[in-house]
């Protein structure tokens, strides 16, 4: 096999070659001692090593050859004549092969016939020596990989020698025998295996990525990703070893019962422990939960910890878990002032704890009739793994938590913090139930809101869409405080809950009285009405009224809410 001209060997490669030669000499010396063949004395060997180091540091190639010849002469003086001659021939043949192969990119093919002709050993000795030489090379390569601080040679791809190029510039390979081809395939497999191993390094692996965002926001994405390293965690749940759900969560505070600050509270969506969702209408409260589900928290450094359920709230669909965290974990910054039109990032982690980022903009939008009042929305839909994860602004401040309801829906921080503080103090999150479906005037189409202003003289308030007060009337205030959005209404209701519990120190379900300022749309007059609201931490249930039709006289009667799902006919659906 033809060899290309020998290139100049770098200092790191010469250092490794000398190390391999020293190890080989030690093994050969051990073999000689077993065969009762005297070897070079330690003093002679030591002088040879020192002289070789001096010549490598400042000598030329000719000086190095002369030095090697002198060293061999000194070492051969301690050997019998026949052994010295054989050893000299052996060393010369090995040095020639090593010098030629050190400049090759492809792995060297060892041929026993060369050693047989040059050294004069018998075939069995040649096979043993060749196999030993291969093991030494493999061991040396493994040692080089294990020592991360040592400089390593570049990874070179094996190739078959080419004999010119064709008209298209493609290399033409010489015909090779079967043994060479097998050696090439084996070397190619080793090369690809080592390349794949190196590409798994975090500095080289570019196969993982977060969801792409606009090029103009790359600067903000990097700052947000840096701030989000300790914000978003991956969580998974299972029942009896069977996987249930995977979502994200974030650190919201320390467990006050643990003075060592090793236990933290993780906030996420109660979707994590939802075992069955029977209806898309949240107001029907048909979801079933599995509070005994096993929950695992997956941290960014690939470590895991068990999560213990502290509390879950069905109306807001949130859950709090207690888990072991690092004491160095910092409490995130919360921004409770999120505005429509503001650009935000949705964060989460997938099943491999890889950070996922998506970009969106807060919308001017009312929830649909199937959704709760406490939602806000973004134009960019959050990834499925981001459910329960934080939504942050460009400064890394948390402005909300993603929810599994409508794409892009989230609970703003102003509601999340009040729920968390209420749980901190009373270990529950009760809420007064209005049993109304509402929408805000400020999020209507501009043409419709202008008509309401011209005909009714109002430009703020909440329009009653279903149940309770007359549909189409407008709620303008709660206990004398003006209301402009549904989020404001939820904040007021949570404030009433906290006042009630603080005043009575009562954790049982109870009732509270409120006053609503109402604008009667039909008669264009304002009224104040009093209502008694039930205070509970269960989900608020609002059911549309239905009529049943008799087959004979078409006389209908109102169906109570608990009979809605028992097969009664909706007149509106029939007329449509």
From TrEMBL:
Record-linked InterPro entries: Peptidase_S1_PA (IPR009003)
Segments passing through the bilayer: none
Record-linked Pfam families: Trypsin_2 (PF13365)
Ranges where the record places region Disordered: 1-62, 135-162
Biased composition (Basic residues): 13-27
Protein name per Swiss-Prot or TrEMBL: PDZ domain-containing protein
The organism of origin for this protein: Setaria italica (Foxtail millet)
């Amino acid at each position: 096999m033809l060899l290309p001209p020998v290139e100049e060997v770098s200092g790191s490669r010469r250092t490794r070659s000398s190390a391999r030669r020293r190890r080989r000499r030690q093994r050969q010396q051990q073999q000689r001692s077993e065969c009762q063949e005297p070897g070079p004395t330690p003093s002679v060997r030591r002088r040879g090593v020192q002289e070789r180091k001096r010549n490598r540091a400042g000598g030329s190639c000719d000086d190095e050859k002369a030095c090697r010849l002198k060293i061999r002469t000194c070492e051969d003086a301690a050997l019998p004549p026949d052994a010295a001659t054989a050893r000299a021939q052996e060393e010369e043949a090995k040095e020639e092969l090593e010098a030629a192969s050190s400049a090759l990119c492809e792995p060297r093919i060892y041929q026993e016939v060369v050693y047989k002709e040059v050294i004069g050993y018998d075939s069995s000795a040649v096979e043993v020596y060749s196999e030993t030489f291969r093991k030494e090379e493999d061991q040396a390569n493994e040692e080089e990989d294990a020592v991360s601080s040592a400089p390593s040679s570049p990874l070179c791809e094996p190739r078959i020698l080419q004999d010119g190029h064709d008209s298209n510039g493609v290399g033409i390979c010489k015909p090779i025998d079967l043994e060479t081809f097998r050696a090439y395939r084996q070397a190619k497999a080793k090369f690809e295996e080592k390349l794949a191993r190196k590409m798994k390094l975090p500095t080289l692996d570019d196969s993982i990525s977060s969801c792409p965002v606009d090029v103009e926001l790359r600067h903000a994405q990097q700052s947000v990703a840096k701030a989000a390293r300790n914000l978003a965690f991956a969580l998974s749940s299972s029942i009896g070893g069977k996987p249930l759900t995977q979502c994200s969560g974030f650190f919201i505070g320390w467990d006050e019962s643990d003075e060592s600050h090793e236990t933290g509270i993780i906030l996420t969506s109660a979707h994590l422990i939802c075992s069955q969702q029977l209806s898309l209408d949240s107001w029907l409260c048909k979801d079933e939960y599995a509070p005994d589900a096993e929950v695992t928290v997956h941290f960014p450094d690939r470590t895991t910890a068990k999560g213990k359920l502290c509390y879950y709230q069905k109306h807001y669909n949130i859950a709090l878990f207690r888990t072991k965290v690092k004491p160095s974990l910092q409490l995130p910054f919360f921004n409770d002032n999120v505005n429509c039109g503001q650009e935000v990032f949705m964060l989460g982690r997938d099943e491999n704890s890889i950070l996922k980022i998506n970009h969106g903009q807060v919308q001017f939008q009312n929830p649909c009739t199937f959704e709760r009042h406490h939602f806000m929305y973004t134009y960019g839909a959050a990834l499925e793994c981001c459910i329960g994860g934080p939504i942050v602004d460009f400064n890394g401040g948390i402005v909300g938590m993603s929810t599994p309801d409508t794409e892009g829906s989230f609970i703003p921080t102003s509601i999340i913090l009040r729920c968390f503080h209420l749980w901190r103090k009373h270990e529950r999150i009760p809420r007064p139930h209005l049993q109304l479906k509402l929408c805000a005037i400020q999020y209507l189409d501009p043409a419709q809101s202008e008509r309401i202003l011209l005909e009714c003289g109002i430009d703020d308030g909440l329009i009653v869409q279903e149940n309770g007060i007359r549909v189409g009337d407008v709620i303008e205030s709660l206990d004398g405080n003006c209301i402009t959005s549904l989020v404001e209404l939820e904040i007021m209701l949570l404030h009433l809950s906290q006042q009630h519990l603080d005043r009575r120190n009562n954790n049982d379900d109870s009732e509270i009285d409120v006053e609503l300022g109402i604008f009667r749309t039909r008669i264009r007059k304002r009224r104040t009405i009093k209502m008694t609201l039930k205070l509970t931490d269960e989900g608020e249930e609002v059911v549309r009224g239905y009529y049943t039709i008799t087959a004979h006289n078409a006389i209908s009667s109102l169906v109570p809410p608990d009979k809605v799902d028992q097969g009664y006919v909706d007149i509106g659906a029939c007329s449509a």
